[in-house]
Specification:
This protein is mainly alpha-helical and 295 residues long. It has 11 helices and no strands. Helix 2 packs antiparallel against helix 8 (190-220). The longest helix has 38 residues, at 11-48.
């Protein structure tokens, strides 16, 4: 919303959003799938073998995600113009998107690493502080948006990266307070292979969802200036609803569901799943009835 107030539907927002979309589809699908598959594996290890094995697996997963993100970021930094040339953009927007792109790759990579770290914290019943850490990014971006209107819009990409870095440091500090100690290294053993098997269907789902959103923006990039920005602003309503309902419930419920599965408490799992389903039906049924009032 602050971006809309500062830059409206200009090509600046178009370039910024397209720069974020490209790494989201190339990186987000895989890294998001790993973060989702991580929790049930961690749960099984922590509940059956002990927390030390779970934390060793966490360190290995962080190493894997970080290495993959670094490799993808290096490739993007070498060929940003070639990647952006695939888009149907005018010279000004294409140049700005190519400038934003390396920063966007780093931002998306850090965001997904933080997502994995948050999964660890959520399983260990740490919700408040890791949510508060997320607001640090918002605060930094608001400040950068306001500052960029005076110093130049190229500051936006650097500001987004800075916000994600500050959030990463904050979540790392919270993990350390919970007793986690990172140990570099990776072993492609049976546990890691099992995580990849779990991640595969999630990756397919995430990739399709990201591809659909990117295709929409790709098509919009061929329309008049501001089309991508308008598409982004229109999606804010949906994002707001999801953030206030499904995201909150899933953040709290997912760790408990995975713990129930790891301990074989299927009655407890079934009861919780039924309650979640009934809640979702009520919320989204109501939205379908009164959606026009929200708009």
């Amino acid at each position: 919303l602050f971006m809309a107030g500062a830059y409206g539907t200009s090509y600046i927002v178009d370039a910024f959003e397209m720069a974020q979309s490209i790494p989201s589809i190339l990186l987000g699908g895989f890294l998001g799938a790993v973060s989702t598959a991580y929790m049930p594996i961690y749960s099984g290890l922590a509940e059956t073998r002990g927390k030390a094995d779970g934390e060793r697996f966490t360190s290995q997963t962080l190493t894997l995600v970080g290495a993959f993100a670094l490799l993808a970021g290096l490739i993007c930094s070498l060929f940003p113009r070639q990647i952006v040339s695939l888009l149907n953009y005018g010279p000004g927007a294409a140049e700005l998107t190519a400038y934003y792109l390396p920063f966007a790759f780093a931002s998306v990579a850090i965001n997904n690493i933080v997502g994995l770290m948050q999964a660890y914290l959520q399983y260990n019943q740490e919700f408040l502080w890791q949510i508060a850490a997320g607001y640090l990014y918002d605060i930094v971006m608001i400040a950068v948006i306001r500052l960029s209107t005076h110093t130049g819009y190229r500051l936006l990409a650097l500001g987004a990266l800075l916000g994600h870095l500050i959030r990463l440091l904050a979540v790392s500090f919270i993990m350390r307070r919970k007793g986690f100690r990172y140990r570099a290294g990776i072993a492609f053993d049976g546990t890691m292979r099992r995580m990849f098997r779990l991640a595969l269907p999630v990756f397919a789902s995430n990739f399709i969802a990201s591809a659909n959103a990117t295709v929409d923006r790709f098509l919009a990039s061929g329309l008049p200036e501001g089309s991508v920005a308008s598409l982004k602003y229109a999606s804010l309503l949906t994002s707001m609803i999801v953030a206030l309902t499904a995201s909150i419930i899933s953040t709290i419920a997912y760790p408990r569901l995975t713990r129930s599965v790891s301990l074989g408490e299927w009655d407890r799992f079934s009861e919780a799943a039924q309650r979640l389903f009934l809640f979702a039906v009520q919320v989204f049924g109501r939205l379908n009835v009164d959606g026009d009032k929200l708009v």
